[in-house]
Known about the structure:
The chain has helices spanning about 15-30, 50-55, 60-65, 70-75, 135-140, 145-165, 185-200, 230-240, 335-355, 395-410, 415-430, and strands at about 10, 35-40, 45, 65-70, 80, 85-90, 95, 100, 105-110, 110-115, 120, 125, 175-180, 215, 245, 250-255, 260, 265-270, 270-275, 280, 300, 315, 320, 325, 330, 365-370, 375-380, 390. By secondary structure, it is α/β, with parallel strands linked by helices. The strands form 10 sheets. The protein has a 5-stranded parallel beta sheet with strand order 5-2-1-11-22. Strands 15-14-13-19 form a 4-stranded parallel beta sheet, covered by helices on one side. Strands 6-7-10 form a 3-stranded antiparallel beta sheet, with no helix packed on it. Strand 24 (about 325) and strand 25 form a beta hairpin. The protein is globular.
Amino acid sequence: xxxxxxxxxxxxxxxxxxxxxxxxxxxxxxxxxxxxxxxxxxxxxxxxxxxxxxxxxxxxxxxxxxxxxxxxxxxxxxxxxxxxxxxxxxxxxxxxxxxxxxxxxxxxxxxxxxxxxxxxxxxxxxxxxxxxxxxxxxxxxxxxxxxxxxxxxxxxxxxxxxxxxxxxxxxxxxxxxxxxxxxxxxxxxxxxxxxxxxxxxxxxxxxxxxxxxxxxxxxxxxxxxxxxxxxxxxxxxxxxxxxxxxxxxxxxxxxxxxxxxxxxxxxxxxxxxxxxxxxxxxxxxxxxxxxxxxxxxxxxxxxxxxxxxxxxxxxxxxxxxxxxxxxxxxxxxxxxxxxxxxxxxxxxxxxxxxxxxxxxxxxxxxxxxxxxxxxxxxxxxxxxxxxxxxxxxxxxxxxxxxxxxxxxxxxxxxxxxxxxxxxxxxxxxxxxxxxxx
Length: 437
C-alpha cells in the first residue's frame, strides 16, 4: 500500500522519458523509502516510440519487445496506475484520471484522483493535422503502438486481397502516400519498400513490387527540413535509389478516401495515407489549470523544467517547451532530448527533497541519424558541438541502434540488456523477417 507520509512524485506519461524517470527514481528514492513514485499511463505496455514505423511496416514485433508497466514497476520500486489523465486541480494538488473501459465499452476502473507533492508531465506528443480537410478521417497516424499495429494489419490485408484477385490492380490499390518528410515519414518509406519486396518471398508472388508506388509529400523545399541540408541531400539520394517518389514544395490541402490533394492541384491516389507532417502536445493540455502553454499545447517551462506558473509541476519530453538559449529556440522534440531531461530530473528530485537549488537543463545535440533499414543509415554526429561530421553505412547504423540500447540500459541495466540482445538474435534466426499475422 502507498505510504501517505512520503513525498509523492507523480509522473504522467510512460513514454521514453516517463518510464526512464520512474525507473531511476524508483531505484534511488522508492527503494530507500525516501519518496513514493507513481507512474500513470493509459496503456498497459511501453514500446520505444522511434520504433513505431518498424512496427507499422511489420519488421519489428511489438509483442516480443514491449515492456509491461506493472512488471517494470514491481522490479524497480515504483507504483503503476492504468488510466488517462483528463484534468488537473492545482489548488488541491490532484490529478484526475478518466474511467477506463474495455474493448466492449464496459467500465473496468472508475474515475480516480491522485494527490501529488510533485507532478511531472511527460505525456509526449501526437500528430498535428492542422485542421486540414479529411486528414482525421482518412489518414493513418503512428502515435501509438495500437495505431502502428492497425497500419500493419491494413497493409497486410491489402496485399493478401490483391494477391488473390483475378483482375488487374486498380490505380493506387497498393500505393502508399506519406504526408511529411521528417524522420518518421522517411524511415517508414524505406521500411515499406523493404516489405513490398519481402511479401513476394512469403508466397504473395502474384504482386509485382515494381507496380507499388511509395510517395512522400513535403511542404518544404527539401526533405528532413529540420536537419542539416547535407543530411537531407544524402537521405534523398538514398531514397532515389529505391525509386521512392519525393514530392517537395507540395502542401496538402485535402484528403479523401482514395486520394491526397495538394495546393498545386496534384492528386495522388493511394490505398494507405499516412500523416506524419507535424506534432503537437495532447489537446487536454491546452491552458490546463491555468498553466502556460504555447500554440501547440506544450507546457512552457523554465530552464530547470519547472512550469512557469507552478513550482510543483514539471514537464519534459515532447510536451514541454523548454528554452535552448544557445540556439535561441526551444529544445527539439527528439528522443535524445527526452532522455537527457529524464536524467536531469532524476537528479533534481533528490535535490528538491533535500531543499537544494535545482540545476538548469542544458541540451547537448549529439547529432541526427536517419535509418533507411537494411539499405543505409545516414547522419551527422556531435551536431552543434563540432560542426557536422557526416556518417553513413555500417558505422551510422551501429550508432543508430545504440540509441535504443541506451534506452534499454536505463530500464534494465547492462547485463539484462545484453541478455535481451542475445535472445533477440536467437529469435531472429527462427522468425520471419516481417510479421505475417
